[in-house]
Structures
1.
Amino acid sequence: MKAPAPVLVFLSGFLPDQQRVNGRERLRAAFGALLGILATALLGRLFVDADAALPWVIAPMGASAVLLFAVPASPLAQPWAMLGGNLLAACVGVTCAHGFHDPTIAAATAVSVAIGLMFVLRCIHPPAGAVALTAVVGGPAIHAMGYGFALYPVLLNSLCLLTLAMIYNRATGREYPQKKAVIAAAAPEPVGPPIPRRVSEEDLDAVLDEYNQVLDISREDLRDLFMRAEAHAYRRRFGTVHCADMMTRAVIAVEYGTLLEDAWALMRRHRVKALPVVDRARRVVGILTQADFMRHADLGGYRGFDERLRRFIRRSGRTHADKAEVVGQIMTAPAQTATENTPVVELIALLGGAGHSHIPIVDGEGRLTGIVAPRDLIGELYQGRLAAPG
């Protein structure tokens, strides 16, 4: 295949990536901007005489509307960014317009200083550059207003548009303003099965420091995208393998009334660390693990470990005993189960980091048909079946 010409490669860089939003979202953004600018202009008319040469709404508000309604999750579109950026730029623009005789120098200086101060005050808002420029080249009527230009039309326009954006975005299912997560656990979970979080807060901070550029996406949304992409990667790689393909079908199970010493003997004899607990119809009602024995026998320390365990599982011989005697008294219930058609990807997080060592597999009526343990998953990975493309 012939390689593309260098000029085509160069020109391809001018083509933007396709925006992956549907028609409904595009219509939502466009209609929101229509309402926002219309309300802002109508409100501005109330503060301006019919014969005055002042604008009802300044042109930079059109750029602000793009951010507030089309990309409301952007850090550049948040309330402080808009209000702080626009007011700051208006004041800088007025100052430069009165401080420099040459409008060219005044315009360039106003935009430059406004950008620098927006970085310092953490209120970067791209349309604010146009606000600073408007204060310099807006004409005699705007020059005559002095710093009043920052109050009207800048502040009034900004407040009106911002208020409409908050109401409209929330009414159409968009969170605005974006809530800053206090802790990592407050971040939204990805759609689909949970997965271990391999990207830590420190990793994300390190990457952002290395990138060293302003991103038009919030830190929380960026982390959410990482997690969702990882979830999709898991489903792509593991989604074709189901529990029925790898589960152990010959399952040793116990019932609610099985004596603890009998259950412990089964674990030792068959070298298993968990036993599903079933009723007479083989429906799973819980699971008994070695951790359950340790927790109820108070085996947190090493001293007297063996003796305390033997004392705990030994039958008391009495009809009424203070200690647990049967499986049902110490089992974990309800048990985390899955069906034979459950993709293995949905079990990875449970077996890896959610505290479940074994997952009973059940049929449509909840009856036990198999069990998946970490060794089953390791065996499938060793054979390379889970990594095979679908």
Note: The first helix runs from residue 6 to 12.
2.
Amino acid sequence: MADECPTYSIVVEMDNAKSIDWAEIGVGLNALAREIAAVSAIGFAKPKLIISHGGQDEDADTLRRNFRNQAPQLEEVAEIGFVACPGGRYYDLKNNGIRATDGELVVFLDSDTVPEADWLGTLLGPFQDPGIVCVNGYTYLLCDDFFSRTFALIWFFPMAEGDKRFASKRALNANNTAFRRDWISSHPFPENNGFKVSCTLLMRQLRREGHVPLNVNARVYHYSPRGWRFFYWRALVTGRDADRKYVELNSPSRGARIVKSFSRWFTMSWRTTRRIVSHARQAGMPAWQIPFSLIVGQAFYALMFWGQFSFAAGIVGDRVELVPDYVGHS
């Protein structure tokens, strides 16, 4: 039976782990161990699990001890390898992990995401079709208070439930996706100064070659961003990234970029209002909190507009986006 199933490797980056605690990481690792065991029971071979981190080679021993403390069963179901990429950013760590894989398929999962039941089987199953190159999972934000519920309503992930229209248009999730190794190893995540731009550029490469990612209901939840400092920084960098994407996909014209910053502000402000009003109940938000959520949502996209406009107008220069030390959750 194992010969009938493609072999696979899993890459987990540790960049996001810097902003959550080990207990939260452990929840995801234990869920991952459960999912690997489940697909192994139906014929998939034991995978190689690559932990890609931004430290030095000698940090592997400390990481291994932490993994054993949090999820001791993970070593029983997977062959774990630790690979260093000193100073590497988010996508650097993913590309670094690809080079250490050996399976026919490469699965990407983030250190701050937690798989639901049947996640891995749902992600791997479509690859029985040889024409499938990329399978894209379903990621949503975990929410348990006013701020996290507001983020879930305004974020670029769909809601956990009842958000079919938005979910059908979801973009490539680098935190929950799988590729054929021969394709992703020859098309690594593109380099870019932006924070979260490479997914969009990789999607363009897929489509240029006639491949369409298959969206499936392979579900993981992502720990919610928390804190006003993150809110401020993430809004601004989202705007700058939006301009970077526009330059790559549409036009480098400064005038066109400035016009786009205004049109996107209007679009996102309207979308935010519609989503908060339509989905607040599904997020567990009391009615009295909705007006305050609308204020927060509009503030986020006003900051996003300033980030995009100031970048497009040349007020802010193009520098490598790094997560500031003061930021809380990723």
Note: The chain has twelve helices and eight strands.
3.
Amino acid sequence: MSDLVIVLLCAAVALVVALLAAAAAGKLARLDGATYPAALLRAATAFGSVVTLTAAVTASLAALPR
């Protein structure tokens, strides 16, 4: 496999994980009694956090010597 295919597959997996985390956060917020806008805000925050964490881990791994 080429490096581009591997990078694209990893990016797709990271986005799916971020979407799952956002959906879970939104559902848990709604079960906790939050309004729909508040639950959506919590879901968006969770999505952004997972994407940011993925970017930080990727950057740190890229900086390691091979």
Note: Residues 3-62 form one domain.
